[in-house]
Amino acid sequence: MQMKSRLLAALLLAASTLAQSDGYPVKSVRVIVPFAPGGGTDVVARVLGQKLSVILGQQFVIENKGGAGGSIGTDQAAKAPADGYTLLLVPTSHVINPSIFAKLPFDTERDFAPISMVATTPILVAVAPGVPANNLKELVALAHDNPQAVANYGSAGNGTVFHLATELFKRKNDIDPAHIPYKGGGPVVMALISGEVQLAFETMLSLQPYVRSGRAKALAVASRERSKVMPDVPTALEQGFPELVATNDYMMFAPAGTPKPVLDAIGAALARALADPDTVAKLSQQGADIVGSGPEQLAAYVHTELGRWAEVVKQARIKSD
Asked: In which region does residue 185 sit, left (phi positive, over 0), alpha (psi from -120 to 50) or beta (all else)?
């Protein structure tokens, strides 16, 4: 109910907000996704980009700038003109990277203007079809008995929530597949279905089509309840792995210093996009839940999560490659 109230309030403000933004936008807007095409962040960005293009009458162009766990594209967004024509859509790695990398070329809080928490999706644990394990207990037993059968795992990049979740799972269960980082969820999934890696923690947005076609095998969903989209996949909690509860959250920012009327216009248009039944249906079909927070709530989330993940990284002793 609170989410619906926030969205409704934003909708009611939309007309006046757009009128105060000096006609914004008058040209196309680029949305930087700091990961390769095909991953969960890319899917969310493209669904929203299409809807925002209709609402605001200008093209929202998705630009994939992968590398360094999302830091390369994020840095480009931080240094872009603060005029509303460059936006950034990032997952949870945005609040993890400051704890992973010794020095980032941007400040996660100071260099970005929060717009909205967009959506959230649970992580799916999957293996290549040839891996002889059908649940987490069998996976752990296999990794103990025959380490080469689970020799490595892929992630969307060093320091992503997928990397951290897998490392915590490894540590808790005394297994040691090697980490192979990629430039986003799309390349990870391709590596999994080809057998290049045997294990991957990724979003339903990325993995679901391949699980349904039999090209990947889902072992667990890392959420407290089963997914309505994939109800046959048991949670990690059900299987006796309480440490494995993790989500990937998607957030939209603009460069710091972007004029408030422009930020308000983007926020209002985004609220309309997130309230649109077509958007809800497209994201829900992929296992994502709409959030639609305001900028203050997103700023508070970033501040809190920076501290929380710093502790996780410290305990797991994870450093940049």
From this structure: alpha
Let me know: does 224 contact 238? Beta carbons within 8 Å. Answer: no
Angstrom distance (rounded) from CA 279 to CA 63: 20
Residue 69: name the closest of 286, 313, 264 by CA. Answer: 313
How high is the pLDDT of residue 241?
Answer: 95
Sequence-separated (6 or more) residues with CB below 8 Å from residue 144: 174, 175
Q: What SS3 class is residue 27?
A: coil
Percentage, residues of the chain above pLDDT 70: 93
Report helix, strand or coil for 12. helix
Beta bridge partners of 178: 152
Q: How many residues does the chain have?
A: 321
SS3 285: helix
Convert 40-96 into a string of H (helix), E (strand) and C (coil).
HHHHHHHHHHHHHHHHHCCCEEEEECCCHHHHHHHHHHHCCCCCCCEEEEECCHHHH
The two tokens of residue 58 are 């200008």
The answer to whether the CB of 313 falls within 8 A of the CB of 99 is: yes
DSSP E strands in the chain: the ranges are 29-33, 60-64, 86-90, 112-127, 152-155, 178-181, 199-203, 217-221, 247-255, 289-290
pLDDT-derived band of residue 17, with 50, 70 and 90 as boundaries? very low
pLDDT at 281: 94
Question: Is residue 168 very low, low, confident or very high in pLDDT (cuts 50, 70, 90)?
Answer: confident
Residue with tokens 């207990």: 137
Are 270 and 48 within 8 A, CB to CB? yes
Element (H, E) at 16: helix 2-19
Residue 180, CA distances (Å) to 87, 92, 137, 200 in order: 29, 19, 23, 10
What pLDDT was estimated at residue 294?
Answer: 94
3-class DSSP assignment, residue 317: coil
Spatial CA neighbour of 69 closest among 38, 49, 87, 95 = 95
